Amino acid sequence: MPIRIPNALPAKEVLVKEGVMVMDETTASRQDIRPLQIALLNLMPNKIKTETQIARLIGSSPLQVDLTLVRIGNHVAKNTSEDHLLSFYNTWEEIKDRKFDGFIITGAPIEKLPFEDVSYWSELQQILDWTTTHVHSSFFICWGAMAAINHFHDIPKHTLDKKAFGVYRHKNLNPASPYLSGFSDDFSISVSRWTEVRRGDVPADSGLEILMESPDTGLCLLHEQFANRLYIFNHIEYDSTSLSDEYFRDQENGTPVDLPANYFPNDDPKSTPQNRWRSHAFLLFGNWINQVYQTTQFDLNDIGKDRT
User: Fold this and answer.
1) What 3-state class would DSSP assign to 161?
2) In degrees to the nearest 10, what's the CA dihedral of 144, 150, 156, 161?
3) Catalytic residue among 196, 235, 246, 280
4) Catalytic pick from 51, 111, 196, 237?
5) Is this structure's pTM higher than 0.90?
6) pLDDT by residue for the chain (308 residues), tens digit each?
7) Which of 43, 48, 283, 298 is the right S-S partner for 108, CB 3.0 to 4.6 Å?
């Protein structure tokens, strides 16, 4: 089954060209199916690119999914038009009375800032608390994952001496986990961050299970059974050219950054990079959607009642 998105969302044209099954709102309304309700809180500057990346992965599921786009209410986006936001996004205040099967919070390029210095930190903390009672399963990505794990478990992020940047090998630490079904024992994921969460800071009694880790860049994916939370610190959702886009952008801005590791063929930035994480990105999101479908409440109103 396809993903259901707003009729005029720019991601639709891209996804259709890629062969992703997309259903517009008009067609979906004629089907008598209980679709999964998934929301995306998009904190990335280029919201159109990020919403396309996430919709691509969610749209690979055989289930019908209604995707709701959410933004921080008191934050002014600099890289996305106000028309786009008004046309396709809801503020959290506008959707906070709803229940969702799944809720995704993306990263944001503000890693070096202390959490309390982020302009929307107070609202984000409210949203994180809200997910406990209004969301069946949450999926936090990169800075979003660091923010969530700090909020729920007081686990700090640490600034790196230089940016962890490139495509790195990771280990599957629990092949029996339903979230890692079909994963190789050893696989690659794209990494782009200035901070890290360290294994030694994860309390033994936190209920957090480490599912993926890299010998080079450390923790990657953690699962928390309570509230069905996933925390991923790397960018498995990235496009093939996302790292090169960041590299050339930083060069133009004068930001000191190394060539992304294990990315350009022969380390030649003029070469077309190869995507070595795409299949596992689809696997991870497909496994997550399947777990949400298998374990969520039939009646959305029942979600979170056992956590109050």
Assistant:
1) strand
2) 0
3) 235
4) 237
5) no
6) 456 677 778 777 777 776 565 666 655 554 455 799 999 999 998 899 999 999 999 988 888 899 999 999 865 656 566 777 878 899 999 999 999 999 999 999 999 999 999 999 999 999 999 999 999 999 999 999 999 999 999 999 999 999 999 999 999 999 999 999 999 999 999 999 999 999 999 999 999 999 999 999 999 999 999 999 999 999 999 999 999 999 999 999 988 889 999 999 999 999 999 999 999 999 999 999 989 998 999 899 999 998 86
7) 43
Structure tokens that stand for 121 in this block: 């930190």
Instruction: Measure the CA–CA gap between 66 and 39, rounded to whole angstroms.
Output: 8
Contact between 86 and 45 (Cβ < 8 Å) = no
Active site residue 237: yes
Q: For residue 131, give both structure tokens.
A: 């997910």
User: Exactly one of 142, 170, 224, 246 is catalytic; which is it?
Assistant: 142
